[in-house]
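Notes continue from the previous slide.

Worked example: a multi-chain complex. Inputs as given:
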Amino acid sequence: MTTVQLVQLAHARSGDKGDNANVGVIAYDPEHYELLREHLTPEVVKAHFGEMVKGDVERFELPNLGALNFLLHGALGGGGTMSLMNDAQGKVFSTGLLRIEIDVPDEVATATAGQGRIPEGWSP
Amino acid sequence: MSESHLVRIASGQGFWGDDIEAPVRQVEGGGIDYLMLDYLAEVTMSIMQKQRARNPGAGYARDFVELMERIFPRCIEDGVRVVTNSGGVNPEGCAAALVEAGQRVGVGGRAKVGLVRGDDLMARLDELLDSGHELANMETGAPLAEIRDQVQSANAYIGAAPIVEALKLGADVVVTGRSTDTALTYAPLMHEFGWAPDDHDRVAAGVVAGHINECGAQCTGGNCLIDWWDIPDMAVVGFPIVEASEDGSFVVTKHDGSGGRVTRASVAEQIVYEMGDPTDYITPDVVADFTTIHLDDLGNDRVRVHGVKGSPRTDFLKVSIAYSSGWKATGTLTYSWPDAAAKARSADRVLRERLSLLGLHFDEIRTELVGWDSTHGLLAGAPPADLPEVQLRVGVRSSDRASVERFTREIAPLVLTGPPSVTGFAGGRPRVQEIMAYWPALIRREAVESELRVEVRDV
């Protein structure tokens, strides 16, 4: 097994629902969906964000899309215009979750190495 | 209607303030039947309500009228019908301004404007409370009576029926208040294909099409994480076009030659955006199950969406209430290497001590270091000593406006009275903002639907 960051296996988008943030995580390769489902339990995600999420983490499965949706309760400092956060609308909880480390089989780690990051030598 | 009949609905605005060239390109690009323009978000209604309080003629998206001055003639010539919630808290005023704009740009006598009213509950609030509608907060269960005096706006999310009616009456442009974002897409589909309101699967498919359309370019390459570095021509990103079939399946695409990219991944990212329980996506007209969505990437910026299932609507409509809830302000200063983060933290400590010595009252003080932890918080860990620079960002919130006002005068002094190598204060004193808190509630649908009014006016 090799430890990799989730950014290598999945992309994500997040947004707000009141004081809750949602993060949809989508496997690059649908074959890795099961692996994500197994590792990314609500407890693991809650522990990852720690104090950043005051309430529970709920998880919903969308196997057709190879996606998991996480609802992070009480993550936005009151939400909307109440929040004093720079990320008051939870737009970058997505990449926050992609930092999480998970153990995957060596061949998966090798096959996905570098995925999710700009190619070497790239410039705008 | 032949089996191959397609209805093409283009998205032109994902929010109030979106790219104003996009809807022009959608119309000039041709090959579309409808243009949907979404202007409203939770906080937008309270902003519009305030504008209307100062000026009874305001309270809607004026940019929409300016846009129509550019595209109205072409829309009429090409038979492109426009559906929008630009009316905000004053759809009447918006429709009147649109009629005048139409006359100015020469579509007088050949265009009709549809107007949908009745979603605005502000004037009826006390009557509704008195007659037993509690409008309790959906999240906390608290009754609205607790904050009644602070309410600034109250609007029910309304569905497809009044838009369909306006289209049946021949409206070329339909202006509504707080229609749901998704209804702006699926109401035209219900009208064109004659879908019955209880045809749950088809209407739910329309809801999915609406959810994909409602954020503009967010499904065509904008804010897209996958391979973002090689998505082409973002300067002229193509906004989505839904090509719908009578059976409820549809293809998401964009104009040939436009920038951006439509793939299974770009569409999937938009599908999960602002998602709660995907099996229970509640709208005024149907409950859609987003776990039933199938996506087929057809290549060439075309993604087919099919298989969507729905179930019957609920007896309630959601009500979006905004209420005044104190004041806030945010101040920033920039600190340079060496030990940039330590200087910023030290300045924050000095600032907090001064606020305390002044005896000010705050419900919350929040400190973030932009360039280090303002996006990923604790996940960023401890900042390194050789960080080139960092921006100190301190926000305060209080029910006492004077405390927030005084806070705004305590930022600039830190430049001469705090830690060294500080800059970035040229923007002047922070602005005090009124906080509009959000109060989601439910109301029995008949209390709203009995008051909905549709009319069509000649330009």
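Summary box: Chain B has a mean pLDDT of 96. The two ends of chain B are 30 Å apart (CA to CA).
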